[in-house]
Amino acid sequence: MVEPKLENVIYSIWMIPEDSFRSFASKIIVELSQKYKLTPFKPHITLIGVKPCENIKEKFKKLVEFIEAPLKFTLGEVGYDKPPWMALYVRVIPSASFLKLRRKAENLFKVSRKWEPHLSFLYAEENQIPILERRRLAKEIEEELKDKINSEFCIERIELWKTWKEVSRWKLVRSSRIEFL
Other C-beta atoms within 10 Å of 117: how many? Predict the structure, then answer.
């Protein structure tokens, strides 16, 4: 397999939820991916995305060392939008320590942009799943999540991923467990 051009790569730092929510989200992701013939992916909240840079692994290690556990998030409303990474998602409300880690990541990687913390259930182009279908799916997922909305969950792992537009090409680079008890 030919690897895509490096200029198309984004390194993404993912926050991986604890198993109690991750397994629930994973089930939704797999079912929807099968239904729409899309590539499934690991449930995650992207902390930050950065272009390739020198010492990316060392910077990731520094970020991991900065973590003040527990990192928590609260589930918000279910939504959908046009960008592929927001085709169908649930908003997350990060805890103070989670927000502090985001600021540290921005400083470390010298990146500052609008952040809409969320956990995606689908990555899809508009021609793959039209907006009206996304709206319908959001209502279904909201019903499935109704007893979890406003619930708090912990982050269990922080991971560095090499990502491209094509989900099937994503590669895990580094992973570190976060002790949250």
Answer: 18
